[in-house]
Amino acid sequence: MGTEEGIVQISVASVVEEVLQQGKGLSDIDLASRKAEEASLRRYVAAGWLRKTIGVVAAKDLPAEPSEEDFRLGLRSGIVLCNVLNKVQPGAVQKVVEAPPDSVNVPDGAALSAYQYFENVRNFLVVVEEMGIPSFEASDLEKGGKSSRIINCVLALKSYSEWKHGGGSGSWKYSGNSKPSSAGKQFVRRNSEPFMNLISRTSSIINKSPDSSDVGHEAREMVNPSSLQMLVHDLLSDKKQEDIPFIVENMLSKVMEEFEHRLASQNEQSKTSHKETVVPTTDESPLELTCEETQVAIIKDEEKAPDEGTCGRVDIDDDGASTPVVRQLMLVEHQHKEVQQLKSTLHDAKVDLQSLQLKYQEEVSNLGKHLHGLAHAASSYQKVLEENRKLYNQVQDLKGNIRVYCRVRPFLPGQPNSLSTVDHLDDGNITITTPSKYGKEGKKSFTFNKVFGPSGTQEEVFADTQPLIRSVLDGYNVCIFAYGQTGSGKTHTMTGPSDLTKETLGVNYRALSDLFNISEQRKDVISYDISVQMVEIYNEQVRDLLTPDGVNKKYPSCT
Length: 559
Hints:
By secondary structure, the chain is mainly alpha-helical. The chain has helices at 12-54, 68-75, 79-88, 114-130, 147-165, 193-205, 210-222, 225-236, 244-276, 291-304, 323-399, 458-470, 490-494, 507-521, and strands spanning 279-280, 286-287, 405-407, 422-425, 429-435, 441-447, 450-452, 535-538, 541-544. Among the domains are: 22-165, Actin-binding Protein, T-fimbrin, domain 1; 185-369, no CATH class; 400-456, no CATH class.
């Protein structure tokens, strides 16, 4: 008698889960291999089209299946590129500088002929950019350049040529890094012998008996679409958008290979089960019940009892020999439905990924436009800032390149105010009283850019010289010095008193502080190097006041 012990139940979910789990470790390796394979095929297609367009003789330096280095060296002179471009667009390059007759192979890294490099390559790049074809950099033809951009440009030119030969209807648009037609291993359900035989048997034999309902229920329990979607999401979540189609295609191919492998194993086991179910009726004529005979028996039984629908149980007198086969075919039918459901789920996932990719591309495009606006605004801001600086310095020039200020020192504690010779102070004028020889007082007026009275503060004095100091950062030379007799307050104005406070700081300290503040504000735009030197000229000797040696302060350059 036939039993159910020999039946191997195939769970589609387990097959997919096993493949996806393996894919977590192998997808990166497979992806790198697929990328390298695709790059090679794209390079071969580009080289083949170039050789076909201008002829093998003209493209003798370009092999049919070149390596990345051979491809770059073959196009380095620009002769092949210009000739191909003239084939596609006659007269595009007016003059192609050919190699000298006695030329030899130029070693990699050596300088090419200036005419070949600057004329051929430059003319080719200018024309393809005007045609709207993706271009590349001239440095890509040198060692270490990106050959992928060269290949993409050649394939785009090939697409343009095919569009033009086809009549040039509509507008031409290059689709990007599309795969060559021979490179893609498209995912299709292979019509393998074990798979198709079992499916064909299932479609003609299966009846929905109570036992088959149980089997269907068990099979349905094996598949959980949400869990499959989670596995697919976990596998693809950390991958780049451009890598997802390769990974999905590879996983689908592996699922079908594994599924067909298990179907083949199950088919072999079913054949073994058929041999065990052979029941001899007599010693002379044994009866062997095959799968085809089972089909005939089931069809006859359906014709006899049409009212019973598909719920009737097949009754065979050969000790239930066909029961394992029927149940096995029913399982195959359910598994086929599960495969269809899996393909539908993966298709939905692919559609969602494509929608997500389009959304990301739109967001990147919007971000690019926003950044372009910001860059334009920043450029305009820099122009306005530069104009403001020029106007600022022009105003300083209009005020005069040489400015003279006068500051009246206040009386020291204990000195009577009646000794003052200052008669009148104005914004830019000062009038002093001078005694004459005959006892009469005379008055003299002097004009300056500005006059500071005895009550003038250090901050007020610096505020008038501050615009000149800021011009230093724009490249102007500025000199500020104090002149007067001993005790008139030169050191007080330039440095300050011995007990310094924020209010009593002199011009030197305030100028340095202002320079450092401005350089800090502009550090994102320009970098300044500030050096300080402080010397003293006294009794016809120049002394360095910043030297660490307090004894020998004589300036090195003075003898």
